[in-house]
Amino acid sequence: MTKTTLLTRALLAVRNIQRGLATVTDQSFANTSPPTAPYALSVSSKPLPAALKLKTGDVFHGQSFGAQTPISGEAVFTTSLVGYPESMTDPSYRGQILVFTQPLIGNYGVPGLFKDQYGLLKYFESDRVQCQGIVVGDYSARYSHWNAVESLSSWCDRHGVPGISGVDTRAIVHLLRNRGSTLAKLVTGDDAKNENFDKIPYDDPNKRNLVAEVSTKTPVSYNPFGDVKIGVIDCGVKYNILRCLVKRGAAVTILPHDFDFNKVSHEFDGLFISNGPGNPNMVTETVRNLRTALSDYDRPIFGICMGNLLLGLAAGLNVFFFFFFFPNPVFVLFLILRFGNRGHNVPAVSEDGRGVITSQNHGYALDDSVMPQGWVKYYVNANDGTNEGIRHSVLPRWSVQFHPEAKGGPQDTEPLFDEFLDRVRADKLKRVGTPLFIPESPVVTPTQYA
């Protein structure tokens, strides 16, 4: 036997040993076929065509899923890697066509309408899909997750939201990055084949008061027996913001965005201004009420996202829009970011130099080049230098542009809720002292134990 033959046999023996280590011994399906997953039954083998047209003139063809209805809105992109159910139900995406940079979407389906101990939906940020439509590179029709109850396509179909897949999302994102956020149309079926986009006009959601569309119409309360009472000015509040407040012991009352809360502000130990969609210049009544609160209300005020913009407007700052379109992007290299900040990985730097990774979703920013008297910059975006928060130098009033309550993550800045409620409790302690509650002892007679 030659040395070559011995070496060959030795290598085969090693290979067989390795194979043996990897052998699956479970033979539960040896004599029967494995069960068919229920979600596989609804997978369509012949998806309809779909087409996306940006107002820049660029057209992208792909396959349709979700609702078969034409829509128009503002095309924006998010760099979030997970959490598409949370993003799509975020009221801040109202009126927008959401482009996912994460290439695979839909692989873990959509969870059910389960509620937590506070009565809030566990896996969604509102009770409906808020975005106009979605654009993905690769839609996974077959999903797999322990708490999924339906596919992304069927969920979108029920909510009247169309989706397009099989398009080059990298090319779309490059267009949005270089030329700025733009309006877009999404059509399906024969209209997509023939590039018939004339059935619907371009709809600019920033010309509407989107906050009025998503804000509650009547006050709603959660955790009524909390030790401090927080009035939430609802500009499109996310459920996880409410959860972050009530799980820390606060009693929360959600108020309509245009309600004059100054009439009842004395009933609250603190005010919170929520996130929300669209143009802050459209939310004039809320800004007017906040101006009154800044002069009359001496208790803590905290805001997030749209809350940062509205508090800034009430304090005397201006806002600018990230919408810029230039045929030649070379001329805008040194201008501000043109496509907003949306995603779960945006760095921000606090006034003391501490860096944090944040979740963001906004297309407007405060112009903090000149700060009003008494106000200072709180956070700054590490990528583009835009404002990420303001605070009063003396009074307990502050806000951030990012989302400390982010789902799914990051959680670097969630302690801002602790800071807010700590200051609310400290302020209440100064005002009312320390009330001592002693439960009434039952009167016990000897006959009860006879």
Automatic annotation (TrEMBL):
- Would I find S-adenosyl-L-methionine among this entry's keywords? no
Matches recorded under SMART domains: CPSase_sm_chain
GO biological process annotation, one example: 'de novo' pyrimidine nucleobase biosynthetic process
Q: So what does this thing catalyse?
A: hydrogencarbonate + L-glutamine + 2 ATP + H2O = carbamoyl phosphate + L-glutamate + 2 ADP + phosphate + 2 H(+); L-glutamine + H2O = L-glutamate + NH4(+)
The alphabetical list of record keywords is: ATP-binding, Glutamine amidotransferase, Ligase, Membrane, Nucleotide-binding, Transmembrane, Transmembrane helix
- Where does the sequence pass through the membrane? 309-337
Q: EC number(s) for this protein?
A: 6.3.5.5
Fetch the PROSITE patterns from UniProt: GATASE_TYPE_1
Is Nucleotide-binding included in the keywords of this UniProt record?
yes
A Pfam family annotated for this chain is CPSase_sm_chain
Q: Which domain of life is it from?
A: Eukaryota
Q: Return one GO MF term.
A: carbamoyl-phosphate synthase (glutamine-hydrolyzing) activity
State the InterPro entries in the record.
Answer: Anth_synth/Amidotransfase, CarbamoylP_synth_ssu, CarbamoylP_synth_ssu_N, CarbP_synth_ssu_N_sf, Class_I_gatase-like, CPSase_GATase1, GATASE
Where is the Carbamoyl-phosphate synthase small subunit N-terminal domain positioned along the sequence? 48-187
Q: In which pathway does it act?
A: Amino-acid biosynthesis; L-arginine biosynthesis; carbamoyl phosphate from bicarbonate: step 1/1
Which family, according to the similarity comment?
Answer: Belongs to the CarA family.
Q: How does it assemble?
A: Heterodimer composed of 2 chains; the small (or glutamine) chain promotes the hydrolysis of glutamine to ammonia, which is used by the large (or ammonia) chain to synthesize carbamoyl phosphate.
Record PANTHER family: CARBAMOYL-PHOSPHATE SYNTHASE SMALL CHAIN, MULTIFUNCTIONAL TRYPTOPHAN BIOSYNTHESIS PROTEIN-RELATED
- Family matches, as NCBIfam families: CPSaseIIsmall (TIGR01368), PRK12838.1 (NF009475)
Q: Which HAMAP family match?
A: CPSase_S_chain
The protein's name:
Carbamoyl phosphate synthase arginine-specific small chain
- The organism of origin for this protein: Gigaspora margarita
